[in-house]
Amino acid sequence: MKVNYSDFRKHLNIEKMNGSAENVAILTHYLQNFALEDTIDYAERAISYYQEIQQGNEKIQAVPLKKLVPIKWDIPFPAPDKPKFTFIDLFAGIGGFRLAFQNLGGKCVFTSEWDESAKRTYEFNFGEVPFGDITKESTKGFIPKRFDVLCAGFPCQAFSIAGKRGGFEDTRGTLFFDVAEIIRRHQPKAFFLENVKGLRNHDKGRTLNTILNVLRDDLNYFVPDPQIINAKDFGVPQNRERIFIIGYHKDLGIDQFEYPEPLDQPVAIEDILEKEEVSVKYYLSTQYLKTLKEHKARHESKGNGFGFEIIPNDSIANAVVCGGMGRERNLIIDERLSNFTPVTKIKGEVNREGIRKMTPREWARLQGFPDTYRICVSDVQAYKQFGNSVAVPAIQATAEKLLAKLNLQQPN
């Protein structure tokens, strides 16, 4: 008996499994990786948990878990049937790294993310509930023994390294330490780390030097100089600069790497805008627009460039971010609105200048997510998730360069 994942998910009633997040992660990871039982230690726990939830569930009661696999993956982005390599996805967010590496033939064998709303979005698109806090030893224990590439868009925390060498011990208490510890234990062929552009100059460059010392000297990886990559150079109309750090295990004998060259592909906001009229809820109220204009005028009078910004259709967006002025720095003019009756509580009326926020789907396109990517959360959460994500085309272009140097005939 084979079932669709959507039906299986419904029968399990995943939405109401409060307090069972780790068990659901174990079960969905098993369904994705049952063929890799020799590399995972949680098969018995997955089967045991499934047996527990069978009780009282007539729809699945008589069907052993091993007779259900492989599941029919009726999800937007199933793993390839015959993967060329394996990878793990740390600080996974909503799966930008996973999309890029799956597009290149890879299979994700472990995912972790601690934001519950992001985990929901991830599962709806990939059929897998991420494990939680990667700083916990119990979470690290679910990582398969072998995999080819480690991916991590790890948050940057302050390192206390003043006057020190800046080695492995100096990273304790930071999230980078957990990434480094996983690399040390599992010795993947390569890794791909991503962070904000400011990491290069954080603490006068000492933080980045510490990271490179650990990766090169303590962990024995060839790490070329990190590079700032801009999403606008890889097919999306967004000025988003991020630092990429690539590494290869020195046993592979790889001692050269070239980051991808920018594409000769002009892009503009008009390429990602909705084709049809959008809801009035995305249009600013007259009162809100007045407040933004006053705020900007106050800063301009002091010689500052802070404040809202309207992006011309033939230009590119500022970086989308989840906080501060993320949406207000990327307003557009869209004069197609035909119904000005508010659908949410606003002060004043809907503005008649056509000024609106971009929709979550437009933000998804700015990050290179295809329109088949499911947005299953509120607008507030969607803006946060896409603002925190990676730009998929930039990741994929760099990943393609990384993978080209590896022997990927057989995945680990």
From TrEMBL:
Pfam families: DNA_methylase. InterPro entries: C5-MTase, C5_DNA_meth_AS, C5_MeTfrase, SAM-dependent_MTases_sf. Its EC number is 2.1.1.37. The keyword rRNA-binding does not apply. The active site is at C156. The keyword Methyltransferase applies. GO terms for biological process: methylation. It catalyses: a 2'-deoxycytidine in DNA + S-adenosyl-L-methionine = a 5-methyl-2'-deoxycytidine in DNA + S-adenosyl-L-homocysteine + H(+). Keywords: Methyltransferase, Restriction system, S-adenosyl-L-methionine, Transferase. One of its GO terms (molecular function) is methyltransferase activity. It is an enzyme of class 2 (transferase). Gene3D superfamilies: 3.90.120.30, Vaccinia Virus protein VP39. Belongs to the class I-like SAM-binding methyltransferase superfamily. C5-methyltransferase family. This is Cytosine-specific methyltransferase. It comes from Olivibacter jilunii.
